Amino acid sequence: MAVESALIKFVKEKFPNFVISTHSFRNDDTIVIRKEGLKQVMTFLKTDKNTLFNMLVDITAVDNLGSEPRFEVIYHILSLTLKLRLRIKVPVEEMEAEVDSITSIWPGANWFEREVFDMFGIIFKNHPDLKRILMYDEFEGHPLRKDFPLKKQFPRIQMREVKTKY
Amino acid sequence: MKKEKEDKKDFQEGIELFEEKIDGKHHLLVNMGPSHPSMHGIIKIILELDGELVINSEVEIGYLHRAFEKTCENRFWNGVIPYTDRLNYCSPIINNVGYVLAVEKLFGLEIPDRCKYIRVIMSELARIADHLTCIGAAAMELGAFTVFLYAMKAREYLYELLEDVTGARVTNAYTRIGGLKADLPNGFTTKTLNALDKVKEVIKETHALLTGNRIFIDRMKGVGIVSPEDAIAWGFTGPCLRSTGVDYDVRKAFPYLVYNEMNFEIPVGENGDNFDRYLVRMEEMIQSIRIIEQAFEKIPSSLPTTEGLEYEPAKIIEMAKKGLVPEDKDTLKLLLPNTLEGIDAEKIRDICSSDKSAVLEPKEEVYTNIEALMQHFKLIMNKHGIRPPEGEVYFPVEAANGELGFYLVSKGEDKPYRIHVRPPCFAILSALPVMIKGLMVADVIPTFGSINMIGGELDR
Amino acid sequence: MSGEAGFLTTKLDEMLGWARKYSIFSYPFVTACCGMEYMSVSCAHYDIDRFGAGWPRFSPRQSDLLLVVGTVNHKIAPVLRKVWEQMAEPKWVISFGVCATSGGFYDNYATVQGIDRIIPVDVYIGGCPPRPEMVLEGLMLLQKKIASQKQELF
Question: Is B170–C37 a contact, with Cβ atoms under 8 angstroms apart?
Answer without folding.
Answer: yes
